[in-house]
Amino acid sequence: MLLRLEDVSSIVLIILEQFVSFVTFLLPERLILFFTRVVKFIFSRFKTNDINYNRFLVKDKLQDDKLLQRIEDLRSAASFKELCELNNFKVQNHLIQTTDGYLLTAHRLNPELNGFKPNGQIAYFQHGLLMSSEIWVLMNDKDLNLPFRLCEMGYDVFLGNNRGNKYSNKHVSLSTSDPKFWDFSIDEFAMYDIPCTIDYILSYTNSKSLTYIGFSQGCSQILASVSINKDLNSKISKLILIAPATTPKRLCNWLINSIVNFKPSLLFLLFGKKILMKSTLFWQRIMYPPFFIKMIDLPNKILFDWRSENITNIQKIICYFHLYSTTSVKSVVHWFQIIRSKKFQMYHDSNIFNAFEYPTSTSIAIPDILLIYGMSDSLVDITQMLDHVPLKSSKMTVIGVEKYEHLDLIWGKNTEYYVLDNVFKFLNESET
């Protein structure tokens, strides 16, 4: 395979990041603390229009400020349970074994346990790529977290986690040090994780159906899963798709477009066959928080042309520290195949046979669907997206939000108006 100049540049940058991570890991803690103080001093010189963020930059003792202490508590929370407790919610953890042996954690917000009257309805949330269940409960304003609001309304709320992330990294026989543990893609999420989780929830609650709420890849997973498990149609009464991605547009930067075109063998050589971007956890731990959010905003701008102007800096301080969770390299290789082919297809490793496309357009028959997307989101091709859902068998409401990008729809300044209110309206209308 002949490599172009941009391909060589991409490979060099990937290797450079891994080298810098390794060297930084070897540095003594005192030296890292010194660099942190220098960065903090530099950041404190530059004020913004966000008063609370400016206070965060100059405060040495955050505990003296109730708001900033809450921001710091949410930022540094180590678990989903801790995030819920900071918002005065009690959570239960459920362990779900898939038919291929993975142990998944689903969190449950039981309305009765939290002092609310149950309404007999189930809501199941599923996160996106390189994420965990934590993404749903990170808004500083408690009332802007959709799972909490639905629990208050009486919904029995469950939040799922994909195999391989921080809450689902066990298997009945495989260790996480075994490459076989990480041999999964979107196919396994669709064939095992989603149907096993839904069946567990319905069996545990003795319910016939539930409302599914997905973000990003969480939308792709349910569409793929229903297309190959047709009985799921009767188990999902309402489907809510937030920033759905099935066949993303071609990405915005030569670097990522170059990497997308790499053969799987080269990608596995560069990233290994286990965890993708594991170094993110290291940088997250040692970086000064305002500097870390800049290091997230910058690649988001370069790779996806996201400006992140609808998310406040103080909200980013919380959210960006919970944005990343582990997944397999193969999952991302699968997405690259989808982007390159412009088809919502299963993982393809054959030079003989054509890739198998998920039969979404002929297999989905969920009665009520709500789709909310950002009109400035480079990852969502709404035309292609609508082709995957058959309008003949489903009633669909499509809402496009102007000047909103991918992450804006869960953490943006006006999510109450653009997302929560529309979700509540949809749920109320479909129940009447």
Automatic annotation (TrEMBL):
Its main location: membrane. Residues 81-139 form the Partial AB-hydrolase lipase domain. It is found in: Membrane. GO terms for cellular component: membrane. GO terms for biological process: lipid catabolic process. The active site is at S216, D377, H406. Keywords: Hydrolase, Lipid degradation, Lipid metabolism, Membrane, Transmembrane, Transmembrane helix. One of its GO terms (molecular function) is hydrolase activity, acting on ester bonds. It holds the Pfam family Abhydro_lipase. It is a single-pass membrane protein. PANTHER family: LYSOSOMAL ACID LIPASE-RELATED. Belongs to the AB hydrolase superfamily. Lipase family. This is Lipase. It comes from [Candida] arabinofermentans NRRL YB-2248.
